[in-house]
Design goal:
FAD/NAD(P)-binding domain, five-stranded parallel β-sheet, 16 strands, 31% helix
Length: 450
Amino acid sequence: MTRPVAVTVVGGGLAGCEAALQLARLGVATRLVEMRPVAATPVHHGDALAQIVCSNSLKSVEPSTASGVLKQELDAMGCRLLDAARACAVPAGSALAVDRDAFSAEVAARLAGAGVIVERGPVDSLPAREGHLWLVATGPLTSGPLVEELGNLTGRPALHFFDAIAPTVTLESLDLEQLYRAARYERGEADYLNAALDREQYETLVRELLAAEKAEVHAFDRTELFAGCQPVEEIAASGPKSLAFGPLRPVGLGDPRQDGRRPYAVVQLRQENREGTIYGLVGFQTRLKQGEQRRVLRLIPGMQDAEFVRYGQLHRNFYLDTPRCCAPDFSLLARPDVMVAGQMTGVEGYVESIASGLYTAWLAAARLRGLSLPALPRTTICGSLLGGFLFDTTTARLTPMNANFGLLPDLPEHIRAKRDRKLARGEAARRDLDLWLREPAVTDLLASLP
């Protein structure tokens, strides 16, 4: 006999898919509802689950980075999507990057194998049902009716910011004689294509970026841009050298064709599929009109005949005022049977969204079993972000946040070298998470795992 669904996960993005897989792993009968293809979004294409629409990079795996430490924490907790990402990885130096299509197909296969019921169609309301939890992970592009429903339940208006996507080009359209392969500081393999710019070329690119015609975005204001993903033309507008010290910084990217000398600026391109046939422009999120993208970006050496398979664009992202409308277990204060996860809670980034989906799924499963999980240690990236930052009420408005070491408390001992301090923070996070995983409520929750 089929068990009644105990949790309905709304949203088939990274957070929703990780949550569904974790719930199934913990023995909870789970249904996943994704509105596409019945209803579309401005940036998604087709009906793929766990679809990645911005950069294909899940950032660094280095243990001296916050992103690397976060991955280590999630691995210790049995993260499903990181494992899937590694199965679909493409060369990206010290970063974990994926073939988008292969990754979506892998996640869909794992959901089917875990026995998760997948349904298609929009969810516009969240009616209460006995013995049932909603886990809403619809992301920054939540449909209008569901945003209205959440607003009615929380009694608070939606927050938002603007986010941008970078363009993608075909490898065969690039002039490889004008490009060189290298990874910054030779970390990992030489997996990036690099276009070296001299000062004149750089200044021409900046001038044309500023002069190019931009796509109109209603209610757009520069103050609403997310600082971690600003359009390249907005960065250029902040100062003549802002790109050279930002996404085009040449440090660690000496040109071997010029005896390893450092160019004035460097544009990097990262492989985006397993076959290595398409490459994305790193740091070139943009809201230029498509014709202007072709005109301006073809000024980059080696890209004069570039064929664009995806253009950059700007879109509006919705999120909740989490510290004022959610309990610490990410349930709505007004409706404890409705829990939320992913970017709509105020985390920013792929792996951060995965972490949110994982942890909220554990909280949901624990509640169904009558368990109360202890708070994640604040010395961990997960704990500092999901338990600390998102519930900080000292600021009037929540601003989305990536994983970073600035969220963590100071180390008890003074460590002079910056890299050594970061490594020590990672060690403390792994140690304290291991202790947390041995807490009685946590071991009870995980007792049935194989």
